[in-house]
Amino acid sequence: MIFESHAHYDDEKFDKDRDLLIQELLSGRICTIMNVGVSIESTKTTIALAEKYAQVYAAAGVHPSDVDELNEENWLWLKKQTEHPKVAAVGEIGLDYYWEKDKTAQEKQKYWFMRQMELARECSLPVIIHSRDAAEDTMKIMQSIHAEEIAGVVHCYSYSPEMAKEFVKMGYYIGVGGVVTFKNAKKLKETAEQIPLTRILLETDAPYMAPEPYRGKRNDSGKLIFVAEKIAELKGVSVEEVEETTRKNAQELFRIEPFK
Ligand code: NI
Question: How far is C-alpha 36 from the chain's CA centre?
């Protein structure tokens, strides 16, 4: 069984067939889905999905590209959501300098990244970190706030294998998705090879990041099998071992009991 550690099924790209698709996935090979909030609004829709399906859990958080919407009023609301029984993580939070080149705006991302990390510490929840083109600042912030005391995953990992080992040293998991199946994904393939399987989580980031042979199409957790196969090939282990180990990793990180 596969634990989907990062999806956005509340995204409008699933408006036409959301329920059908989720039911199909959960009655098949997918045991659990972590649906991840990226904004105040999507934290609401994520929690609603988690309330509807026993096997769907929610991450509450605001993505670096959406931190402009945060203020003291909705911060209190966000904080309150961490008490919800189906909220199992704070995320996705972090830094994204690919889409944000402006220094002042980057400072704002750092501020809310740190605050959301502190929130996770306060409520003893793991974090789901989004970090793009911001390796150095992400690491600096994590070191300065002693992120090793907070559990978490660096999702959609895009940096070097060396950097991945630094995150692993801090106790973090590395989220590996469809990109690992791309021909030109040399760094991610090396990362998957070099870090232990006990530190890898399977993720789609659905509807985005579909693996080969579906690259560019709408992604869903059913396609995680292609990611599991590629990791198995890179590590010289069976697909079953990849599925089982990454499932246990996610259950341990998010403290979720197995369903089947
Ligand atoms: Ni995401």
Answer: 7
Mean pLDDT of 82-98: 98
CA 44 to centroid of ligand 1, rounded, Å: 15
The reported pLDDT for the residue numbered 121 is: 98
Please report the domains of the chain, with CATH numbers, ordered by start residue.
2-254 (3.20.20.140)
Cα–Cα distance for residue pair 260/250, rounded to 1 Å: 15
- pLDDT of 259 > 70? The answer is no
State in Å: Cα 196 to ligand 1 middle: 23
Between CA 67 and CA 60 the distance in angstroms is 13
State yes or no: pLDDT of 260 exceeds 90: no
Quick count: other Cβ atoms within 10 Å of Cβ 80?
11
Global pTM value: 0.97
Distance between Cα 8 and ligand 1 center (Å): 7
Give pLDDT tens digits for 29-73. 999 999 999 999 999 999 999 999 999 999 999 999 999 999 999
The Å distance, Cα 219 to ligand 1 centre, comes to 12
- Radius of gyration of the chain, Cα coordinates, nearest whole angstrom: 17
Q: Are 94 and 141 in contact (CB under 8 A)?
A: no
CA–CA distance, 245 with 198 (Å, rounded to integer):
6
3-state secondary structure of 191: helix
